[in-house]
Amino acid sequence: MRSTPDFSSPLNQPLDPRPQVLGIGGSPRKKSNSTILLHRLLKGVEQAGLSSQALELRDCQFQGCIGCERCRKDRICTGLRDGMSLIYPDLIRSQGLVLVSPTHNYNITAWMKAFIDRLYCFYTFDQQCPRAWSSQLAGQGRKAVLGAVCEQENRDDMGFTLEAMRRPLEALGYEIVAELPIFRIFAGGKIAQQPQLLDQAQALGSRLAESLAP
Predict the structure, then answer these.
(1) Residue 3 scores a pLDDT above 70
(2) Is the peptide bond before 130 cis (omega within 30 degrees of 0)?
(3) Is 85 a residue whose pLDDT tops 90?
(4) How is domain 18-212 classified at the CATH fold level?
(5) Greatest pairwise CA separation for the chain in angstroms
(6) Taking the mean position of all CA atoms in its chain, how far away is CA 126?
(7) C-alpha span between 137 and 171 (Å, rounded)
(8) Where in the chain are the domains?
(9) Does the global pTM surpass 0.90?
């Protein structure tokens, strides 16, 4: 049984991520197109010789940021003890990150939004308002690939889905290696009938792994 990490003390030591990849799925559906896409991206990572781990946010019991600001002192989220406490160590250790979300109302899902908001704890702020800030995750060669699945036909209909993942990750210090928007897909598992899209995803996963190779 996995124990809950102790995040009661500040992270005073430099973070030292490994060349491995954590994949995060933001779909509320089981056997979703986003899940299939996530696993195909990670298959490319494994094919290129790096280890990977997939995690579906729907399977995690956690909530969104409550704005308690305790993380400004503790440098990790201590205001909430939930499923994110188990995700943080894997995120910190993994130099690579893959985020995949379906489009919900022109944006990422509520699960993905809550996950991204809980990464606020990695920011360090100055004392004067408006406060300048930096990221604990910056300068460590962290890189990411983003995927989004949309029923409609174009980027306008996809809205802010990719941007809502890209901009926070860039602020945290990740280099976005690639983005993969998928259109005209809705019925569960339908993407499995699109081998060209899946091959493209696998190639991007390999590209991410190659960019992280020592």
Answers:
(1) no
(2) yes
(3) yes
(4) Rossmann fold (3.40.50)
(5) 54
(6) 26
(7) 10
(8) 18-212
(9) yes
